[in-house]
Amino acid sequence: MKSVRVVVWLDFVCPWCRIATNRIGEAARNLAGEIEVVVDIRSYRMAKGVPAEGFTMALIRRLGNAAAADRLMAAVKETGSREGLDFRFDKMRFGDTTDAHAMVKSIDSFEKRQQLIGIIFHACTAEGKDIFDRRVLSALAIGQGLALHEFSFDARHLASVARDEHDAKLLAAGLPLFVFNDKIVLSGAQEVSVFEKAMRESAILPHAHLEPES
């Protein structure tokens, strides 16, 4: 079977990142039996050094006016709703996600890292949980079944986060960002059909199963 490794850069406070990763998953399921897809998620902080605040206010500040912010949030909510995703902008917050990314990086198991990324996304966007609070992040990890010794917020993991960000900046601007088998680069929440096309065009016949990079 052909294989493709999809490297994805994202941030937990990026609504389009959640939509796009949902679509990547759908594309992979649609091609099951034809292509083996390995999704390798990397870190990128949209608001490094920015104190957490309400998402709506942060968006107004970035776009310059409330009307533009309302239009963007309405578009995200409508798109998400069609795909079974809930965005609670009234509860969501925006800011520096260093702790969340560091915690994910600290987990040795690839599968557990992937699961926790999904849990943090849901907690942030659908439940409005404060993912900038280490106590909240710890509770999410423990709720997933991780023991206290299996994760940390140690600063040594920040080198890996910074390396991810450096690699992304060499490729393109904007989030989410995708690279398919080091051949095709896409950015933004593309349609499922676009992701499927990229998977097919970049797929290879491997000598062994593709593995995510550590």
From TrEMBL:
<dbReference type="InterPro" id="IPR036249">
    <property type="entry name" value="Thioredoxin-like_sf"/>
</dbReference>
<feature type="domain" description="DSBA-like thioredoxin">
    <location>
        <begin position="6"/>
        <end position="199"/>
    </location>
</feature>
<protein>
    <submittedName>
        <fullName>DSBA-like thioredoxin domain</fullName>
    </submittedName>
</protein>
<dbReference type="InterPro" id="IPR001853">
    <property type="entry name" value="DSBA-like_thioredoxin_dom"/>
</dbReference>
<dbReference type="Pfam" id="PF01323">
    <property type="entry name" value="DSBA"/>
</dbReference>
<dbReference type="GO" id="GO:0016491">
    <property type="term" value="F:oxidoreductase activity"/>
</dbReference>
